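tool=predict chain=A
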Amino acid sequence: MRTIHGWKKARPALEAWRKKLASVQVVLKQPRAIDIVPVDFISGEPVVREGQAKKKFRGQLIYFTADDATLRRPSGALLVVDTYELESLSDGKTRVLPWPGG
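tool=predict ok
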């Protein structure tokens, strides 16, 4: 598997994944609840915390900047993840480590 260190060097691979709407494996540094949560629109607070915190999940890369990545989950939900939260992105052939140090 080819590994690319750094967001700037990974730009061509990220752009290709975005254009193809390729399914990518996302690995987060810390587990995070990423499932859809019902919200009480009066208070703006989640009704019930459902779902487990996950460190790995799949999604399609929709948009990316130097600061964050927007991913579409299989459920159709959009998720914005800051680059400092990402450990890696991979399509099975190429792995991107957002920071040059890995």
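The mean pLDDT is 85. Residues 22 and 85 are 21 Å apart (CA to CA).
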